[in-house]
Specification:
The complex is a heterodimer of chains A (93) and B (744). Chain A is of the alpha+beta class and 93 residues long. In chain A, 14% of the residues lie in helices and 31% in strands. Chain A has a single domain, classed as Ferrous iron transport protein A (FeoA) (SH3 type barrels, Roll). Chain A is globular. Chain A starts with 27 loop residues before the first strand and ends with a strand. With 744 residues, chain B is an alpha/beta fold. Chain B has 29 helices and twelve strands. The longest helix of chain B has 45 residues. Chain B is elongated and about 90 Å long. The chains are: A alpha+beta (93), B alpha/beta (744). Chains A and B meet through helix 1, strand 2 and strand 4 of A and helix 3, helix 12, helix 13, helix 16 and strand 10 of B.
């Protein structure tokens, strides 16, 4: 019965996406940088949570409306709205 | 003085001074004349409150969610010959303050000059936690790093090398698992050592900056040093000013900075001070222009880079990360698109059903005891001692009886509901409810974290209003404050449960009654949630317009709640606290009800005048005059609405001409008779439904109103929060009454 919990994207290395909000649960990437649109408190919060260049991030689970989504980063599980995740540029893991 | 139990594993260390339990004396909140001040700082949800409790013997509730400690709390203990005052600061991710909690924490460590700062970090997320540690060490080198949750880390195959970490950070490192007090004595000893030593520690500094940045920081530092020779942490302040830290710039401008340093207000110096501040800020602007554009990012990245390097050396990994996978599995049940909502609904419905079904029997037993048995005994006792009728009436029929009712109606549901809620909270479910529901809140123009303040509101709205501090945006926070009242607090649950049981459960066959009444209560609670959305939407489209702010929410790891401890603390702390409050309000309310029922003006008691006056309004709302009088008497506390209604009904219907005084129930010897009393008072299904609705939608209690004022510091928003729900309640109940009457 546990198969229904397994997403197909598990362990898939994503090569085409460039922003974090494009990834689906199970996929991993490195943070490249934060977009220029992301400034002030928003930028600071994301960096405090560990969204800094070079960090490895993995998508863990999406909420019932697929927004927000929870990301595993630096050991913590952080939920972000799509609008925030779209301002985080990534490179393939 | 609480004594400590000794972990059997440490028995052989008993002779060692570190484990000398006799030297620790927990002093709770008695923090007078402390020799040393200890600040507890750290990331949110690292177990700071658990450490705080272990040190002070206090039982501050420790929820498993970020932002549980929103204000700072204080306690104290004495160890060997010294007395220590402990300040538990709100959890923060960094010191670059972008929220109220961060500012509270930062200002205390910067200007409160604690003798020792204990930085609590989570062993399972060391790297991110070290980011804060490195920033903290920049402003206070009298620090100890307390690596907590090593038990949880062990389960994940993570071990921390304290020696390596201590060498790299330049300050002592203590490993603890505060839940079972592992490492607490070593922490006590380290605190003692640092508090009593005058030698400065050589803490790791991240401000060894690249030369082009360092030059600017150094120049500004010199200027600051000339202007404010007493200021501590000049280099840090200089780099923050260069970074354009708005709260520090503001503090410099309005003199708060000087005030915080000297600890006293500065008079007559305003002109000198203003020019001084202006020239400093001017220099800061000048230097800032020379800096690279990404100066700020580089500072933060640098700190994380350092944190990563240090963590890599200090963390030893053995075995696989099994637990993270268990967490992942649980998350797929609790917050996935498929199961998130159904599971959430089932959990809460189950909780209400257990509360309603479970509370029936003990409620009836308490009622039998307090009202059926003790009340007649007291009455006959008073009679045999020749009490005048008015004295025994005032004391026994007024004060005692209203208190007895409050206890029998409120205690059983609370004693069941609170422990269940606390278990769910400790498990880590609350932030996940926020995660599930954020999308709906976003659509309403509000913040997902509002859910957590709502959940707190289900306990107590005043606590819910304080909890809104976890929302950074002032606009969204105000929405959360105004709508918190739509979360039914524990003072209102008993009203809902009683009316649903008597009037709605009675509509269906007996074996379904419990389930249907539970669903009715869940329905009212869900209506409250719906109103929260509608009012939030209305506010964010009109008077509180604005864009949705940033949403970031940490989902804590699931933790197995300590069942018996949770049961004990939630019974003692929450249940008893709320019950005590209810009793404190019920005693005088009982006295007032008895007085207004027995002092006659032109032939009729005062209460009767009030009821007749309010009857037309009551009819219009599908309620009655008695209910409205009860709501006036019950402004201080919602808990006493039902007892007040019962006493007033008896006065108005049953007790006329009785020489024992009005406002007394003579035939109520079991809880079943409550139904008879209410029906005697003209209660119909419409009255019950509208009373349930009015109980959901009316003004907050006086404590909550006061808390709203304290939190918003605005008369306007306090008035809005008070009167908007009443207006809404009148509209809703009047409409239902109208439709009901037209339809029947």
């Amino acid at each position: 019965m546990f198969n229904i919990f397994k997403k197909k994207g598990k362990e898939v290395i994503h090569k085409t996406s460039t922003i974090l909000s494009d990834l689906i649960p199970g996929q991993k990437a490195f943070i490249r940088n934060l977009s220029e649109d992301c400034q002030g408190v928003e930028r600071q919060r994301l960096m405090d949570m560990g969204f800094v260049p070079g960090s490895l991030v993995e998508v863990e689970v999406s909420s019932p409306f697929h927004d927000p989504t929870a990301y595993r980063i630096k050991g913590g599980l952080i939920a972000l709205r799509k609008i925030q995740a779209s301002k985080i540029n990534i490179s393939p893991a | 003085m609480a004594s400590l139990k000794i972990d059997p594993a440490h028995k052989n260390c008993e002779s060692c001074p570190i484990h000398d339990k006799l030297n620790l004396q927990r002093l709770g909140v008695n923090a007078e004349n402390a020799d040393y001040i200890i600040a507890l700082a750290g990331n949110p949800n690292t177990g700071k409150s658990t450490i705080f409790n272990a040190l002070t013997g206090l039982r501050q509730h420790t929820g498993n969610w970020t932002g549980k400690t929103v204000a700072r709390s204080e306690g104290s203990y004495s160890y060997h010959d010294y007395k220590y005052k402990v300040i538990d600061l709100p959890g923060t991710y960094s010191l670059i303050s972008s929220s109220l909690e961060e500012e509270i924490a930062r200002n205390f460590v910067l200007f409160g000059k604690p003798d020792v700062t204990v930085i609590v970090v989570d062993a399972t997320r060391l790297e991110r936690n070290l980011n804060l540690v490195l920033q903290m060490l920049e402003i206070s080198s009298r620090a100890i790093v307390c690596v907590n949750l090593i038990d949880e880390a062990k389960k994940n195959g993570i071990y921390i090398d304290a020696k390596v970490l201590s060498r790299d950070l330049g300050v002592p490192v203590v490993l603890t698992a505060a839940r079972d007090e592992t490492g607490i004595y070593e922490l006590l000893t380290q605190i003692e050592t640092i508090a009593n030593s005058s030698d400065p520690l050589k803490a790791r500094s991240i401000l060894d900056l690249p030369t082009e940045i360092d030059k600017s920081v150094e120049s500004l530092r010199k200027i600051l040093a000339e202007a404010y020779p007493d200021l501590p942490n000049l280099k840090w302040l200089a780099s923050r000013l260069l970074d354009g830290d708005s709260s520090l710039i503001e503090a410099l401008k309005n003199g708060d900075l000087e005030q915080l340093i000297s600890g006293k207000s500065i008079e007559n110096a305003s002109e000198i001070h203003e020019t001084k501040a202006a020239s400093i800020l001017e220099s800061a602007d000048k230097f800032r222009k020379k800096l690279p554009a990404n100066f700020h990012d580089r500072l933060v990245e640098r700190t994380f880079h350092e944190a990563g390097k240090i963590a890599e050396k200090a963390v030893v990994r053995k075995g696989e990360k099994r637990r993270f996978n268990l967490d992942l599995f649980l998350d797929k049940v609790f917050i996935s698109p498929l199961f998130g909502y159904p599971v959430m609904f089932l959990l809460f419905a189950l909780m209400f059903w257990l509360t309603i079904a479970g509370a029936n029997v003990p409620s009836a037993m308490l009622f039998d005891l307090l009202v059926g048995t003790i009340h007649p005994l007291l009455k006959s006792g008073a009679e045999s001692m020749n009490f005048p009728w008015w004295l025994s009436g005032f004391l026994i029929d007024g004060m005692y009886l209203s208190t007895a009712w409050v206890i029998s109606v409120m205690l059983p549901p609370m004693a069941i509901f609170f422990p269940m809620f606390t278990l769910l909270e400790d498990f880590g479910y609350l932030p996940r409810v926020a995660f599930n529901m954020d999308n709906l809140f976003k659509k309403a123009g509000a913040h997902g974290k509002q859910v957590m303040t709502m959940m707190m509101g289900f306990g107590c709205n005043a606590a819910g209003v304080v909890a809104t501090r976890i929302i950074d945006s002032p606009r969204e926070r105000l929405i959360a404050i105004i709508t918190n009242n739509f979360a039914i607090c524990n003072g209102r649950w008993p009203t809902q449960i009683l009316l649903a049981t008597i009037f709605i459960g009675a509509l269906v066959p007996a074996h379904l009654a419990g389930f249907v009444s539970a669903m009715a209560v869940v329905g009212v609670a869900l209506l409250g949630v719906l109103l929260t959305f509608l009012v939030s939407y209305g506010l964010s489209k009109t008077v509180l317009k604005g864009q949705p702010s940033v949403f970031s929410l940490e989902l804590p790891p699931y933790r197995v709640p300590k069942f018996w401890q949770t049961l004990y603390t939630s019974l003692i702390d929450r249940t008893m606290f709320v019950l005590w409050r209810a009793v404190v309000f019920a005693l005088p309310a009982g006295a007032i009800i008895w007085l207004i029922s027995n002092i006659n003006i032109s032939g009729e008691p005062i209460a009767a005048h009030m009821i007749h006056f309010l009857d037309p309004m009551g009819w219009f709302l599908g309620l009655n005059g008695i209910i409205l009088v009860a709501y006036i008497v019950a402004i201080p506390a919602n808990e006493i609405v039902i007892p007040t209604i019962l006493m007033l009904i008896v006065l108005m219907t049953g007790a006329q001409g009785h020489n024992a005084g009005a406002g007394v129930i003579f035939d109520a010897t079991s809880i079943d008779s409550l139904e008879g009393i209410l029906k005697n008072g003209g209660f119909t299904l419409l009255t019950a439904v509208n009373l349930m609705l009015f109980s959901l939608i009316h003004n907050p209690c006086s404590t909550t109103i006061y808390t709203i004022f304290k939190e918003t510091k605005s008369v306007k928003w306090t008035l809005v929060s008070t009167f908007m729900p009443i207006a809404l309640g009148i509209i809703v109940t009047a409409s239902i009454a109208l439709i009901w009457r037209l339809a029947s």
